[in-house]
Amino acid sequence: xxxxxxxxxxxxxxxxxxxxxxxxxxxxxxxxxxxxxxxxxxxxxxxxxxxxxxxxxxxxxxxxxxxxxxxxxxxxxxxxxxxxxxxxxxxxxxxxxxxxxxxxxxxxxxxxxxxxxxxxxxxxxxxxxxxxxxxxxxxxxxxxxxxxxxxxxxxxxxxxxxxxxxxxxxxxxxxxxxxxxxxxxxxxxxxxxxxxxxxxxxxxxxxxxxxxxxxxxxxxxxxxxxxxxxxxxxxxxxxxxxxxxxxxxxxxxxxxxxxxxxxxxxxxxxxxxxxxxxxxxxx
Length: 283
Prior knowledge:
The chain has about 280 residues and is α/β, with parallel strands linked by helices. The chain folds into 2 domains: about 20-185, Rossmann fold (3-Layer(aba) Sandwich); about 190-280. Helix content is about 45%, strand content about 15%. It has helices spanning about 20-30, 45-55, 70-75, 80-90, 105-115, 130-140, 175-180, 190-200, 205-220, 230-245, 260-265, 265-280, and strands at about 35-40, 60-65, 75-80, 105, 120-125, 145, 150-155, 160-165, 180-185. Strands 2-5-8-1-9 form a 5-stranded parallel sheet, with helices on both faces. Helix 8 (about 190-200) crosses helix 9 (about 205-220). The chain is elongated, with a radius of gyration of 24 Å.
């Protein structure tokens, strides 16, 4: 049985989105199709699922995909080792003859067995191999899977809202892409970033906001940066600047950029940014 809902996603307190993204989320829920999100790290792909949970008051289940993961792990696990130990030592309250006692649901299994509709976030699907991707969508299409050890079929009580993220590190198969709705979340432009910052810092000084955002985008444009700072780094950087009693917002335009280690997490990136900031202070 599937749960219908007339509620529409409209964003969340700490999540700023444009109308195009809101529309694709809502149409995916109505069509009961997975929504595949692509975009560079820090564009809010993962946080979108959290925003849907907050806005629509639904439980969140997160499947963090790993390169070595097999689909069965996302469905269920049969704990043979615990059953073996119970049969040897006989000091467990579990019934060794009942295999069900040793079946533990994986993340997809938990979403299927939930007593209310959930948001199922499948994070970084591009880490998995093609077989995992296609077989997983077969399960999500059918909304059921079999537990081989008990000859039992698990059917979804409620069809989850499925959000799938990809950092585009490798291509996804055509069959996979054909069974999802798709949206690319572009990195926010300065105007959108100003809105995001205002949500996180309601009383932020306008000069600090402007100068910090300008400096942030200038740092992102440095050539040969391996890991560009993302939105979360900018938010943390502004927090650090606010916490420094000696900091002055006007210094940012002079190339005085403290706490670069908040923005850049790799040594070569940090050193290049620090050198460029140092040269700018000379002019």
